[in-house]
Amino acid sequence: MEESSRKSVVLIVDDDPVTRMLMRQSLKNIDIDIYEASNGTDAIAEFNQHKPDMTLLDVSMPGMDGFECCERLRQLPRGQECAIVMVTSLDEVEDIERAFQVGATDFMTKPLKWPLFNHRVRYVLKANRTLQELSLNKNKLAKAQSIAHLVYWEWDYQSDSIECSTDMFDMLGLTRESRLTLKRLLTVIHPDDRARFVRNVRLAIKDKKPYDIEYRVQRPDGHVLFINERTDINFEYGQWRIVGTLHDITALKQSEQEITYYAYYDTLTDLPNRRLFIEQLETTIASARRHQRRFTLMFLDLDRFKHVNDTYGHHVGDELLCQAAGRIRECVRDSDLVAKISLESDHRVARLAGDEFTVLLDDVDDVADIADIANRLIEIFSKPFVIGGTPLYVTVSIGITVFPTDGHNVQILLQHADVAMYHAKQVGRNNYQFFSESMNNYLKLRMEMEHDLRIALEQEQFELYYQPQYHARSEKIVGFEALLRWRHPVKGLLTPDSFIEIAESTGLILPIGDWVLMQACEQVYQWQQALGCAYRVAINLSALQFNQNYLPERVRQTLEQTGLPPETLELEITETAMLNDVAETIPLLFALKKTGVRLAIDDFGTGYSSMSYLKNFPIDTLKIDRSFVEEIVFNRKDAAIAQTIVQLANNLHLSTIAEGVETEAQAALLLDMGCEEFQGFYFSKPMPVSDLSVMLTCNGHDL
């Protein structure tokens, strides 16, 4: 049962049983529970058990008298909440004073006036319940204020002292021994907020208008609190009073700061994120327009950062980004030029996304000064990043734009800075480039080409041409190299030279490569079946395709779907792609060999000095690059290189095929060297399927 609905409990304590009986009889028409005790010891036991709302306590009892019993009852749980009425036959003033001193609520004198006794008890119970409810509400209010970090104060304008709740001392970190005054309160208000606080108090006194302000409190222990103070002005009993509450909103402010941090800062590097940077850039543009100033925007991108992530894992990549952010920040901060401009230059560095950073240089537009800062950045990135004891080398490419020369708004400036950064990567990375309109035009052409490539994939605008490969002595066709062509609806038939680099940089080479593999296998299998010849087909793999772990499985699935015998498929891989990561290359080459296909090194001799790796690579064929064949008849060095490749292949039991054979003399010399197969215009140009099918059918009797 709830406290408010339970019966009141009365404890009668008297050594006279007749008195106890008369009291009980007098109270029988009141809806209460009555308990009795004949002495002080029993009274304490009954009190502990029943926790009465009112105790009628006789003063004169043997053993423990009523005064001592009252004192001890007040010390028991709920002893302070019970109304204790002393019943005495004494009417000495000293006894009455002593009764109140030991904690009595009231007193009655014997002989009791029984007609009034019932009403007296009712009144005391009612008054005590009212007091209990007030105390309960006060405690609830105090708890609510404590939970809400809320305290109360009141001031009459006239006196020095401010009346306040005791919790206010605790909130402000002040001792309770001395009273609270306005002067004492000012000592804990943060110096930067003190004048505003005083101004609001003075206006409240003068204009009789309340205020609602926020300020900081600097407690004596060093803690800083954020306070919201709300006030009201009252006119009571002939004088004005100002009352107010202090609300500790420190946690709220901290939450707001955290929300702001997550909204405007990159949690990995602690740099401003894209959102805050854009706002800063907009502000800088507006200020530059107003004051007719120029400023510089740098766009930085880490070179080959993806390789670090793929090789060492994202945890290493994250640490690298943190260290890179620190280097950029320190480099910009250390720049005398920037230091002169803004004390907050550190905030001019932002992480835009991924491994992209920006640097905003206010009022810096001199080319020499900009170049000096850019060179500092490049130089600081030349030092290794040491992560987990491992040194990692990552350079940076920088694109630079200047307002208003290179753009008048955020979007254009960022776009042009990105274009300049991209150009820095195009010309070799680890450098900086200023934006120019020619760069922008070049980028637009690239973007148009990328868009057209995607359309070409969707609308099947690609087709394959095939260039026959001939046996050197019999000059009979033994296979074909599949060569990609793009029948562009506007530009006509395009060779890979005009689009393959864009396809590789955008990743479109992967779906294109899959299409080439499937189409070539299907077509050559048809020729094999129709003409009864085991023609071989050679397909070029891009470096990006070769780096895909799923490549062996893709080849196996394609062979199964098309029915092409694995030994008639030859995959051509460049030296550069093979030697990019030898530890990864060797397992991948052996995985490809398990599918049964042949492997060839394309453009052999033009890349690295890779001869020492040939003994470890499961290679079948070396292709002599056309650059050595072109002047082989007249240039002794080219002839010597070609001769060396052929001899090396023979010693390693590898096949050789010469590309770009265009004259009879070239073919004769290569034949004398021992080259096994030829490919070039002297024998046949690349042809579409229809033309080559006719040629194969007509010459079928020669095959």
Question: How are the SSEs ordered, and which strands pair?
Answer:
Blueprint: E1 8-13, H1 17-26, E2 32-37, H2 40-50, E3 54-58, H3 66-74, E4 83-88, H4 93-101, E5 106-109, H5 114-147, E6 150-155, E7 163-164, H6 166-172, H7 182-186, H8 191-207, E8 212-218, E9 224-236, E10 239-248, H9 250-264, H10 274-291, E11 295-302, H11 305-312, H12 314-334, H13 336-341, E12 349-353, E13 356-361, H14 367-380, E14 385-387, E15 390-392, E16 396-403, H15 410-426, E17 432-434, H16 437-459, E18 462-471, E19 477-488, E20 492-494, H17 500-506, H18 509-531, E21 536-540, H19 543-546, H20 551-562, E22 569-574, H21 575-578, H22 582-594, E23 598-604, E24 621-624, H23 626-629, H24 636-651, E25 655-659, H25 664-673, E26 677-679, E27 687-688, H26 689-698
Helix pairs in contact: 2-3, 11-12, 12-14, 18-20, 20-22
Core attributes:
5-stranded parallel β-sheet, 703 residues, alpha/beta
Written overview of the protein:
Residues about 335-345 have low confidence and may be disordered. Strands 18-19-21-22-23-24-25-26 form an 8-stranded mixed β-barrel, surrounded by 4 helices. It is about 45% helix and about 20% strand. With about 700 residues, the protein is an alpha/beta fold. The protein is elongated and about 150 Å long. The longest helix is centred in the first third of the chain and has 34 residues, at about 115-145. Helix 11 runs antiparallel to helix 12. The protein contains 26 helices and 27 strands.
